[in-house]
Write a structure and sequence with these properties.
The complex is a heterodimer. By secondary structure, chain A is an alpha/beta fold. Chain A is 26% helix and 25% strand. The longest helix of chain A has 16 residues. Chain B has one domain. The chains are: A alpha/beta, B mainly alpha.
C-alpha cells in the first residue's frame, strides 16, 4: 500500500453505516459485530475493548505484531474463547452455537489427525457436519492441490501439505464465515498465491473471510480491507482503493471501527 | 445435520482405527498389567485358597492402574494438533464424543482383561467356585465404572500441566465405592463364600448415577477454556 488517508475521524458512526454497504447487492449485512470486547488471560489483556463491525462477502486481512491479539480475535469469533467482557455477534446472532455449521476455522495447528490419511480425516470431520458425500471430500482435496488418492498418513505430510489439507477441512461445510489463522505459514510462494486466488473466488461467491497473516503483501489486490492490530486493539482499517488514487483508511484508533 | 448416533459411530470407528495403527494404549496397558501380575506372583507365594481371597483386589487394582494409562492416551490424541478445537466448533453433539471415547476405552480395557485373565488364572492358580457368568457381569459393570469416570476426569484434566498425575488423583477417590464393589463381588464369586448380588447391584447403580452425571456435565467440560 503506497498511501493511506484517514476519513471521518470525528464521526465513526458514518463510517460504520458506509462500511457494510454491499457494492453489488446494495444491501447492508454484518457478518460479525464486536462491542467493547475484552479478553484477559490471567493478568494479560489479549484484547482491550475492541469494537468493530465486519460486513458479509468481504475478505479481511488482519495484520499486526506477535501478541497483538489477532488469533484471540479469531478464536472469540469462532466461539472457542469467551470474551471476558463485551458482546460478540456472528451472522446476526450472539448465540454462537446456532451458527456453528456456518463457520469454518483454520488454526495455527492443522486440526488434523496424524494417524489418518487425507480422505479419512475429511470423512471424519465432514461427518461432524452431517456430510457423507465422498465426491465432496475428493473435490475439497483437489481444490487445495492435493491428490485424494494419496494414501499417505497426515503425519508423513510436509507442513505445507498439512496447511493445504487444513484449508480443505475448514471449507468442507461450505461456511458463510471463514476464519484463517496464518494459512500461508510453511507454504511455498506459488501455492500461497494459488490459495489467495482460491480465497478471492470464495469471497466473490459470498463468503466472509478473516485471514490473519504476517505476509499481507500476498493479499494486495485481493483483500477488501487490511485490519491493523496492536496491543489488543484494532488501530486502523485500511481499504485499498479500487482507483489509482491508492488505499483509503476508514478508521481511527478510537471508537467503533 | 449430524446426529448423536452417526457422530458416535464415526468417532468410535476413528478411535479404533487409530489405536489399531498405533497400538499406543493397548501396548502400554498390557506391559503395565503384565508387570503387576508377574511381580506380585514373585513377591507372594499364596496357596490356592489364599489366592482366591486376594485375587479380587489384585486383579482390579492392576486393571485400574493399567486403565489410567489408556485414559490419558484418549485425550492426548485430541490435543495433538489441537484437533479438539475442530470438534468444538462443529455442530456435533458433545455427548457423541464422550460416549464414543468411553465405549472405545471400554473396548481397550475389555481386550486387556480378556488377555490378562488366563495369566491371572495361571499365576495365581485360580478356579472360581461361583458361576463364571457372574464374573463376566462384574467385569463389564466394573470396567464401565472405571472408564466412564476415567474418560470424564481425563477430559477435565487435559488442560492442566501435570495431567498424567492429575487423573489418578481425581479418579481414584471417586472410584473407591466402585472398586470396593468390584473387589467384594469378584472375591465372593471366586471363593463362593457369599452372594455377589448386593455388590453387583451397587455397581449397576454406581454406573447409572455416574454415567448420567458425566453426560449432563460433559458439554461444560468440553467447552471450558
Amino acid at each position: 500500500m503506497s498511501r493511506s488517508e484517514l476519513l471521518n475521524e470525528d464521526n465513526n458512526s458514518t463510517v460504520l453505516a458506509n462500511a457494510c454497504e454491499m457494492p453489488h447487492a446494495g444491501e447492508s449485512v454484518r457478518a460479525t459485530s464486536l462491542e467493547s470486547v475484552t479478553k484477559h488471560f490471567g493478568r494479560f489483556a489479549a484484547l482491550r475493548g475492541v469494537t468493530a463491525d465486519f460486513c458479509s462477502g468481504r475478505l479481511y486481512t488482519i495484520v499486526g505484531d506477535n501478541g497483538a491479539g489477532k488469533s484471540t480475535l479469531l478464536r472469540i469469533i469462532t466461539g472457542l474463547l469467551q470474551p471476558t467482557r463485551g458482546k460478540v455477534e456472528v451472522l446476526g446472532t450472539s448465540a454462537l452455537c446456532d451458527v456453528r455449521p456456518q463457520i469454518g476455522y483454520m488454526a495455527h495447528a492443522p486440526l488434523l489427525y496424524e494417524e489418518l490419511d487425507a480422505m479419512e480425516n475429511l470423512r471424519y470431520f465432514g461427518g461432524l457436519y452431517g456430510i457423507r458425500d465422498h465426491g465432496r471430500f475428493e473435490s475439497a482435496i483437489r481444490m487445495v492441490g492435493l491428490d485424494p488418492e494419496l494414501k499417505r498418513r497426515v503425519g508423513q505430510y510436509s507442513q505445507g501439505m498439512r496447511q493445504r489439507l487444513s484449508l480443505a477441512r475448514s471449507v468442507l461445510n461450505d461456511p458463510k464465515l471463514l476464519l484463517l489463522d496464518e494459512p500461508f505459514s510453511n507454504v511455498d510462494i506459488v501455492s500461497a498465491r494459488e490459495m489467495v486466488r482460491l480465497l478471492g473466488r470464495m469471497r466473490d461467491g459470498g463468503k466472509t473471510i478473516f485471514l490473519v497473516t504476517q505476509q499481507p503483501s500476498l493479499l494486495e489486490g485481493t483483500a477488501d480491507e487490511f485490519v491493523h492490530m496492536t496491543m489488543g486493539r484494532i488501530v486502523e482499517r485500511v481499504r485499498p482503493a479500487p482507483s489509482p488514487a491508492g488505499p483509503v483508511s476508514v478508521s481511527s484508533t478510537e471508537g467503533r471501527l | 445435520m449430524s446426529s448423536l448416533a452417526a457422530v458416535f459411530k464415526s468417532t468410535l470407528a476413528k478411535d479404533l482405527r487409530m489405536e489399531w495403527r498405533s497400538k499406543d494404549a493397548i501396548n502400554s496397558m498390557l506391559f503395565f498389567a503384565l508387570l503387576v501380575v508377574v511381580i506380585f506372583s514373585f513377591s507372594f507365594d499364596p496357596t490356592a485358597e489364599e489366592s482366591r481371597q486376594i485375587a479380587g483386589g489384585l486383579i482390579w487394582v492392576a486393571f485400574l492402574f493399567a486403565a489410567v494409562v489408556a485414559l490419558n492416551q484418549t485425550w492426548a490424541r485430541e490435543l495433538r494438533n489441537q484437533v479438539l478445537d475442530a470438534y468444538r466448533i462443529s455442530p456435533a453433539p458433545a455427548n457423541s464424543l464422550f460416549l464414543a471415547k468411553t465405549v472405545g476405552n471400554f473396548i481397550f480395557v475389555g481386550v486387556l482383561e480378556l488377555l490378562m485373565a488366563p495369566l491371572f488364572v495361571m499365576f495365581y492358580n485360580l478356579r472360581p467356585i461361583g458361576p463364571v457368568w457372574e464374573l463376566a457381569v462384574v467385569g463389564a459393570l466394573g470396567t464401565w465404572a472405571l472408564v466412564v469416570n476415567g474418560t470424564f476426569f481425563a477430559a477435565m484434566s487435559i488442560r492442566t500441566r501435570s495431567r498424567e498425575v492429575m487423573l489418578p488423583l481425581i479418579l481414584f477417590p471417586v472410584s473407591i465405592p466402585a472398586l470396593l464393589a468390584m473387589v467384594e463381588a469378584t472375591t465372593a464369586i471366586l471363593t463362593g463364600d457369599s452372594s455377589p448380588v448386593f455388590w453387583m447391584n451397587l455397581l449397576a447403580v454406581y454406573d447409572l448415577v455416574f454415567t448420567t452425571a458425566c453426560l449432563l456435565l460433559f458439554e461444560t467440560i468440553l467447552n471450558a477454556e
